[in-house]
Amino acid sequence: MAEEIKMTTISPDQVLSQVKMDKAIALHFDATPPNISPDKIRPYRASGMANFCPVESAFVIEAIRNKEWDTVVKWNKRKVLPGKVIQIVDTGTVVHKQLQYYAGLLGKVKEGQWRCPACGFLTHREVTMPTISIEDNDTGLDLTYPAPCPRCKGKNLAEFPSWLYEELTLIEKAKGVPEILLVKGHCDGKWKVRVRVGEEMVWVTVIVDFKTINKNGFDEKYGGGLPKTDHIPQMQTYLNLADVEIGVLIYYCKDTSAHKYYLVYRDKTYWAEIIAKVNWARSGDMSDKAKYRVCSNVGHPRARGCFFIEHCWGKKAPENFLA
Fold first, then answer.
1. Among 78, 71, 70, 98, which residue's Cα sits nearest to residue 34?
2. Residue ranges per domain, the chain?
3. Residues 6 or more apart whose Cβ sits within 8 Å of residue 4
């Protein structure tokens, strides 16, 4: 079992050799506007852990408990990107779908559900992507193709991707906490790969997350190295929610289709610190909020952009930006 294997016995090259996906992806464009409603707002998302502020979170939770949905929606709107940026992000989402599709076609994804893009049929349990093998007349080799949907009789084959991966939902297992206040995330895949440990071949479970990035970012120009600092807390959240020891960040360059791979090992100490802050925010006790503030003063750049600045500091930010 993967859980019984000491991670120090597995080298990064062993895992990465099993998860590489050297396939060029055709870029498609599809932009959709965001849909903001209270029932879709969650204070604790894996993608937000890098910039998590316990005090801001506490104010959001207070508004949720008081059913002040207008306040909650207004707070959330500050996190919604403008039109052009939404289109760029949505383009990245389409690339994600294609990467997930190719991972499934290559047999990498051992767990997860798949949806038919034509009729919405969803595989009944966690399985590999439905595929068929057809012998190639020229080489005699069996080639893998997406299988026709059993409900719409293959109409999915006219779509691309022919099967859509339903991202795994990872939710914190905490008793007595309302669902809306649980830490939640969606990862791009939970894969099982075979690596050699000593004389044996063993199965290791890894969490995979794709990151689409432009060429400047991919080439690590302008001081931005890889993996990005805000992606590590996100992956740590996935690993601890899923109870998995190894994560793989796969960076995909939208301009060249090149890939880079980075391993992230689970850090339980980091997670314990995050959950302690989350639990403080859930408690509703604001008596020691100064201890949990992320901003050093009311003039801090983040404080200036915070929806709850006056609630947190009791005053507005000074007009002089350098104050």
1. 78
2. 2-292
3. none
Residue 91 φ then ψ, to 5°: -60, -45
161: which 2 tokens? 């991707």
Q: Flag whether the pTM goes above 0.70.
A: yes
CA–CA distance, 307 with 75 (Å, rounded to integer): 6
- Find tokens 């970012």 and name the residue: 217
Q: Characterize 27-56 residue by residue with b for buried, 16 or more Cβ atoms within 10 angstroms of its Cβ, and e for exposed.
A: eeeeeeeeeeeeeebbbbbbebbeebbbbb
pLDDT digits (tens, 9 = 90+) for 33-61: 556 677 778 889 998 998 899 999 999 99
Question: Can you read off the two tokens belonging to residue 22?
Answer: 């050297």
Quote the CA–CA distance of 43 and 47 in Å, as a whole number: 11
Element (H, E) at 193: strand 189-197
CB contact at 8 A, 189 and 109: yes
Residue range 118-133, pLDDT digits in tens: 999 999 777 789 999 8
